Amino acid sequence: MPDSMPLRLVLASASPARRKTLQAAGIEPDVLVSGVDESLVVADRAEELCRELARLKAQAALTRLRPNDDQRTLVIGCDSVLEFDGEILGKPADAADATRRWKRMRGRSGVLHSGHCLIDVGEGRRAEAVASTVVHFADVSDHEIATYVGTGEPLAVAGAFTIDGLGGPFVERIEGDPGTVIGLSLPLLRRLLTELDLRITDLWTKVAPGNQSVERLG
């Protein structure tokens, strides 16, 4: 496939945070939600679970793609889980579950794992890996927990917290790439692209004010 062929990145995720992470890095992805039922996938280790889910999401999106001979299409699937006290924690089941988790996590630490699976559709090649970051939680009060859970944000994210949203003040510090906690590690994406003989700069775009048009920079 010619090197001059434009690259298209398809994000197999409904996560606004993942999309914003890519956009802030100069990459304008297409979004195709995978529809994978995460509850049906089990694994003994957090790294294995998020890697498998990332792979399934990328493959599910791949089956729904329409071929385009004018573009080289890549699909990226991601999934995140929190490893805490030896447990694998995805999204909370409900507000009560989120509240229980936060009362356990406050003042302590966990490891956020994000699996990434990148597929080069035309070449039929795949690269995948897991990024892990240690998260140190603040010793938040019962009132802060109740108010935060009441916003609904913790119910929509792995581990029941964010660092790029309302949950940011409740995380004292992290050890690792912030993108891992948000759900997509840009340094890891760069390495996966390299494995497929591609460059992340080939995905850079320039968006005009008002998102009227997109000009390829690479």
How is this structure best described in words?
The chain has 218 residues and is α+β, with helices and mostly antiparallel strands. The protein has one domain (7-216): Alpha-Beta Complex (Maf protein). It has helices at residues 16-24, 46-62, 95-105, 142-151, 178-182, 186-195; strands at residues 7-11, 30-31, 72-84, 87-89, 109-120, 125-137, 171-175, 205-207, 214-216. A hairpin with a 4-residue loop joins strand 5 (109-120) and strand 6. Helix 3 runs antiparallel to helix 4. The radius of gyration is 18 Å and the shape is elongated. The model has no long low-confidence stretch (mean pLDDT 91).
Topology:
Elements: E1 7-11, H1 16-24, E2 30-31, H2 46-62, E3 72-84, E4 87-89, H3 95-105, E5 109-120, E6 125-137, H4 142-151, E7 171-175, H5 178-182, H6 186-195, E8 205-207, E9 214-216
Parallel strand pairs: 1-2, 1-3
Antiparallel strand pairs: 3-4, 3-5, 5-6, 6-7, 8-9
Helix pairs in contact: 3-4
Instruction: Round the mean pLDDT to the nearest integer and report it.
Output: 91
Whole-number total of structural domains: 1
CATH fold-level topology: Maf protein
Please indicate the percent range of residues in DSSP E strands (runs of 2 or more).
25-35%
Coarse structural class: alpha+beta
Distance between the termini: 16 Å
CATH architecture: Alpha-Beta Complex
Radius of gyration: 18 Å
Oligomer: single chain
- Element string (H = helix, E = strand): EHEHEEHEEHEHHEE
> In percent, how helical is the residue content?
25-40%
